[in-house]
Design brief:
single chain; 199 residues; mainly alpha; two-stranded antiparallel ribbon; 5 helices; disordered C terminus
């Protein structure tokens, strides 16, 4: 079968730098928007989620520095995707805790059960995404491999930060209280359909 060139592009240094700068700004403003939403919607638990997300980015940059990977435009796109995936895990955890509170569980019990029940879902979703990333790494080339490297590393750091680090922060905030009577996790729809603020 004959091969025809449909499109061909040549990017100079200035255009490449401009694209990287735009990608960086898109990731930065995406992070800010996620942080504001999480803190407004989940209150203290939202702040904990944002801290875990920030640590996730630091861990990812550290790993990229250790292996000597260059941060290219596909890598920045993978980081932007990782932000959404990492905060999704925190949303699952927070909603599980809210569910336990709706069912009448004590605050400390809601934290424990919420993390336990969210863990399986988080691992399942990230493992399936990791499989796709490994396939891209194995069969891709060029920019596709660059995206896959950052993507796979971001999955590993996001699971650690959302499950281990956020749980440690929650224990730091609430674990020292002898009598824990409430959680600052936003507003919860109770079974009697009354909107109650859990502060």
């Amino acid at each position: 079968a004959p091969m025809y060139f449909v499109e061909e592009r040549i990017n100079g240094p200035s255009l490449g730098a401009e694209n990287i700068e735009r990608g960086f700004h898109a990731t930065l403003w995406g992070f800010v928007a996620i942080a504001l939403f999480m803190m407004a919607y989940y209150h203290v638990f939202g702040v904990i989620s944002v801290l875990a997300l920030s640590a996730n980015l630091i861990f990812l940059m550290a790993l990229l520095g250790v292996i000597g990977a260059a941060l290219t435009l596909p890598g920045i796109a993978a980081i932007a995707l990782a932000l959404g995936m990492a905060i999704d895990a925190n949303v699952l955890i927070n909603e599980r805790i809210r569910e336990e509170l709706r069912n009448g569980a004590a605050p400390r019990s809601a934290i424990i059960v919420g993390y336990e029940r969210a863990f399986g879902t988080i691992v399942d979703s990230n493992v399936t995404t990791l499989i796709v990333g490994v396939m891209l790494l194995a069969f891709g080339s060029g920019s596709v491999r660059g995206f896959a490297v950052v993507h796979c590393l971001a999955i590993l750091t996001s699971v650690f930060s959302s499950v281990v680090l956020s749980r440690a922060l929650v224990e730091l905030v609430y674990g020292r209280r002898t009598r824990l009577t409430s959680l600052s996790i936003g507003q919860i729809w109770m079974p009697n359909s009354a909107l109650t603020a859990i502060k």
